[in-house]
Amino acid sequence: MSRPVSAVSQMLERNQALFVGKRLLVCGALEDDYPRQLAELADSLTVFTTDYCYFLSQQAALGERILFDHQLGGAPRFDALLLLMPKAKAEAQYLLAMMAPLLESGADLLLAGENRGGINGADKLLAPYGEKPIKRDSARRCSLYHGELGKPVAPFEMDAWFSRYECQAGDTELTVMALPGVFSADGLDLGSQMLLASLPPMTGKLLDFGCGAGVIGSILAKRNPALTVNMVDISALALESSRRTLAVNGLSGRVYASDVYSDIAERFQHIVSNPPFHAGLKTFYAATETFLARAPEFLTADGALTIVANAFLRYQPILETHFKRTDVIAGDGKFKVYLSKA
């Protein structure tokens, strides 16, 4: 079943002459099936995404033309780039710096997105790569900018894009490595601090769900040397950040992509999370509700789920429906920490 065509894709359809006969690199996510149309228009198509949900949704249609990773390398081989604006400007800068060395001189640079999502900063984003872009289209609160790769491109240096900071949770110190746009990229948030302060000593297997930069799983690994740590996220940038955070602290853990429980096939004594509730620019509960509702299937008989959430989010009724017992073990006006036992 095809999905409704998004406003951004409708705008791209009106400008599809830009893609005809191109060796096209698309970076980012369209919320519909428009990439299939691009495959028919372009001479060749490669879709690169850092979003595992999007990768899974398009894999059947695009096959080897869609790639999920934190980085794409190789020699210049594309003559057009379409970047769908991510929500974080720093992530857009990262993606452009990574993609530009894959483009031939004079390649088309096309940026598309919703006006409230930062697309109107396209001039500044593209300034390092060529002359000022033109606005090709603007409708239904979306815009399309078109520039050209007219300046020499520096090789992409992955390590230069990691932020590094020290954080402390109780008596545990941690060095955190994070790529742009990753949760906990700028510091340990108050919710995670409250969660970590609420957790007892642990043994067995842990799942850190929505791991971000790997702060929660890494601190618990450091506190509990016998704990087997697993970290999952849908963001390739988060997964690479978690791997680096583990490595720089001399810790070990398994880090992999999963769309909620799509790639999880074992049970855990502990599932711990500061679950995301923002997807793009929209508040999004469905994935977190599925995560909470199905958690008992992935816990051992004596296992427990511990999460922190904004106090206004109505997670307690979901937890009480699917778990035998749920308690609020910490909280203030902003956050609550829930402990649920299967």
Automatic annotation (TrEMBL):
GN (gene name): rsmC
Compartments, record wording:
Cytoplasm
Report domain Methyltransferase small N-terminal positions.
Answer: 9-165
Q: Which residues form the signal peptide?
A: none
Can you tell me which family this protein belongs to? Belongs to the methyltransferase superfamily. RsmC family.
Record keyword Ribonucleoprotein present: no
Please spell out the taxonomic lineage of the organism that makes this protein. Bacteria, Pseudomonadati, Pseudomonadota, Gammaproteobacteria, Aeromonadales
Single GO MF annotation: nucleic acid binding
| Protein name in UniProt | Ribosomal RNA small subunit methyltransferase C
Assembly and binders: Monomer.
A Pfam family name for this chain? MTS_N
